[in-house]
């Protein structure tokens, strides 16, 4: 089977995750199944504590104790898959590294060196408009700039699967919209597969071609909503956009 | 930046002058030969340092610096591993817990009997004490690293070695320097103690020898030398912290 012919980038079948806390067992996900096709975007939404981060950890390969079948690009998920990138909410950047070295960290770890590394760092930093900030430390940046550096660091790896855990939730409304648009632009250019965890219904409809709604505790798939008009110019001003947010809100808060 | 440097310098000099003035006042009031004033003390210091005192100063500095470097080389890797590898920590923690509160200084006679009265027994004693003073804070700092930071670096493909190199080491570095600064005071105190017992070299010996001859200005020359040693180490560590942890000193 040639990998490029895999239609689905992510296939999850009967996934369950149980955390062990001493003697207690905390079920986090139960019998979750869905598929995300290559080059599309998917938003994961659900009440706090329903296992969204857990699901992302499984997809990234960091969490290995699960039951069920999880395929990424046709193969069982592996911890060091080089083309997967994960962006966490706040803790992505290392405070002791300058912006430039933070962005280059993934490349350094993967053994990309010299000219190749510096060109890639320059390219992604220019793409997010922060090349001027390369000699600063993360503490010298605003929250929005830090999050853009996080995105740049992930993009430096040329990922085909981008996993994001509430990347914009700590930002003010204006910055958030700005970054959502920027992410959309990047996706339109690169067409990597994006899985985005969010607690904002508007963000889910704005950025997810597919929206997976999880129910609370343990997380199960409540419904999967297709959103084919995502990415259209001016979509967020249409009544269809608002109808969908209302529909989702009713699913989440019955 | 430069302005701040001058202000700092001004206050440092002012503090030194203040201390010397207090010393002079105390000496004048008490008027005892055992407490000579700063003038005669510094004069004796200047004369002695170009004579025999210099040798003792070098010997003591050598002992302290070697001990600090040795403790650092042992405690930093041990602390980082104990903080990160739960299994290692679980088997070693009880040992540390029992040994930590034991006053290691009581082992000086044992060490002298086993290792002789030269440098080695003194360096071993200081290292023994300082090792634990650095080990415990480093272990706790390594343990306290936010797991989200570790995960985000792991997701970049980092193996165990990368995590130590890019996350654990820089995360504990400020703690290393802080604990070292605290430990340097202890190290000099233990050095002094060990040099006063059947020793022929070092500032502790010099000081006690001056005392037994009732050569009080010389005794104070020894005290000045010890203080100077402590001060130099302190400044060196401060400088090192600024060089090694630049991210902590950026202007926000
Ligand atoms: N390491 C852990 N040990 C034990 N239980 C855990 C652990 N991590 C998460 N849990 C539990 O698993 C459940 C799912 O957690 P998860 O972080 O995936 O939720 P989430 O949907 O991301 O929540 P939020 O929206 O608040 O970020 C929660 O009930 C949480 O308490
Ligand atoms: Mg979460």
List keywords for this structure.
heterodimer, A: 254 residues, alpha/beta, Rossmann fold, 2 domains, four-stranded antiparallel beta sheet, 7 helices, 10 strands, 27% strand, B: 252 residues, mainly alpha, MetI-like fold, binds adenosine-5'-triphosphate, binds magnesium ion
Number of helices of chain A: 7
Looking at how many chains there are and whether they match, the oligomeric state comes to heterodimer
Strand content of chain B: under 5%
At the first level of CATH, the class of the largest domain in chain A is Alpha Beta
> What is the N-to-C succession of helices and strands of chain B?
HHHHHHHHHH
Order of helices and strands of chain A: EEEHEEEHHHEHEHEEH
Mean pLDDT of chain B: 92
Q: Radius of gyration of chain B in whole Å, from Cα?
A: 22 Å
Helicity range of chain B: over 70%
Q: Reading side by side through the largest sheet of chain A, how are the strands ordered?
A: 6-7-8-3-9-10
Structural class of chain B: mainly alpha
Biggest protein-protein contact in the assembly: A-B, 28 and 23 residues
Q: How many domains comprise the coordinates of chain B?
A: 2
Tally of individual helices of chain B:
10
What is the fold-level CATH name, i.e. the topology of the largest domain in chain B?
MetI-like fold
Number of domains of chain A: 2
Low-confidence stretches of chain B: none
Query: What CATH architecture of the largest domain in chain B would you give?
Result: Orthogonal Bundle
What's the topology here?
The complex is a heterodimer of chains A (254) and B (252).
Chain A: E1 8-21, E2 24-37, E3 41-45, H1 52-60, E4 67-72, E5 75-76, E6 84-87, H2 99-109, H3 114-127, H4 143-155, E7 161-165, H5 173-190, E8 193-197, H6 201-207, E9 210-215, E10 220-226, H7 239-252
Parallel strand pairs in A: 3-8, 3-9, 6-7, 7-8
Antiparallel strand pairs in A: 1-2, 1-4, 4-5, 9-10
Helix pairs in contact in A: 2-3, 2-4, 3-4, 6-7
Chain B: H1 2-30, H2 38-49, H3 53-84, H4 86-99, H5 108-115, H6 119-143, H7 147-154, H8 160-195, H9 203-212, H10 216-244
Residues 52-53, 165 of chain A line the site of magnesium ion.
């Amino acid at each position: 089977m040639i990998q490029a012919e895999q239609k689905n980038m992510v296939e999850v079948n009967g996934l369950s995750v149980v955390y062990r806390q001493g003697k207690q067992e905390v079920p986090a996900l139960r019998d979750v199944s869905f598929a995300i096709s290559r080059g599309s975007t998917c938003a994961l939404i659900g009440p706090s504590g329903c296992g969204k981060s857990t699901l992302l950890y499984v997809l990234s390969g960091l969490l290995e104790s699960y039951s069920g079948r999880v395929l990424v690009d046709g193969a069982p998920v592996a911890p060091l898959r080089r083309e997967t990138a994960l962006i966490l909410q706040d803790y992505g950047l290392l405070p002791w590294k300058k912006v430039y070295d933070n962005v280059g960290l993934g490349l350094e770890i993967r053994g990309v060196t010299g000219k190749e590394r510096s060109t890639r760092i320059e390219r992604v930093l220019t793409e997010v408009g922060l090349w001027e900030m390369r000699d600063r430390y993360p503490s010298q940046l605003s929250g929005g700039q830090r999050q853009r550096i996080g995105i740049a660091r992930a993009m430096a790896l040329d990922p085909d699967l981008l996993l994001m855990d509430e990347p914009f939730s700590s930002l003010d409304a204006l910055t958030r919209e700005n970054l959502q648009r920027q992410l959309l632009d990047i996706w339109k250019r690169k067409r990597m597969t994006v899985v985005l965890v969010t607690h904002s219904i508007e963000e889910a409809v704005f950025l997810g071609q597919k929206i997976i709604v999880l129910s609370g505790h343990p997380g199960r798939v409540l419904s999967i909503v297709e959103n084919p008009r995502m990415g259209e110019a001016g979509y967020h001003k249409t009544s269809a956009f608002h109808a969908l947010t209302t529909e989702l809100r009713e699913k989440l808060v019955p | 930046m430069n302005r701040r440097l001058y202000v700092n310098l001004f206050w440092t000099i002012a503090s030194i002058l203040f201390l010397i003035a207090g010393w002079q006042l105390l000496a004048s009031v008490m008027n005892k030969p055992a407490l000579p004033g700063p003038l005669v003390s510094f004069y004796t210091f200047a004369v002695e340092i170009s004579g025999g005192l210099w040798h003792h100063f070098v010997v003591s500095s050598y002992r302290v610096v070697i001990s600090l470097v040795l403790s650092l080389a042992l405690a930093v890797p041990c602390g980082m591993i104990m903080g990160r590898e739960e299994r290692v920590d679980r088997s070693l923690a009880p040992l540390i817990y029992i040994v930590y509160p034991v006053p290691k200084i009581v082992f000086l006679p044992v060490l002298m009997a086993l290792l002789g009265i030269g440098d080695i027994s003194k360096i071993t004693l200081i290292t023994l004490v300082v090792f634990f003073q650095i080990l415990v804070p480093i272990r706790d700092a390594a343990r306290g690293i936010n797991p989200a930071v570790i995960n985000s670096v792991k997701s970049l493909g980092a193996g165990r070695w990368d995590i130590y190199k890019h996350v654990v080491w820089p995360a504990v570095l400020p703690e290393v320097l802080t604990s070292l600064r605290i430990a340097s005071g202890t190290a000099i105190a233990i050095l002094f103690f060990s040099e006063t017992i059947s020793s022929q070299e070092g500032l502790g010996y010099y000081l006690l020898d001056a005392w037994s001859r009732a050569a009080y200005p010389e005794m104070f020359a020894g005290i000045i030398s010890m203080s100077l040693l402590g001060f130099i180490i302190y400044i060196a560590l401060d400088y090192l912290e600024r060089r090694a942890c630049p991210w902590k000193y950026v202007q926000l």
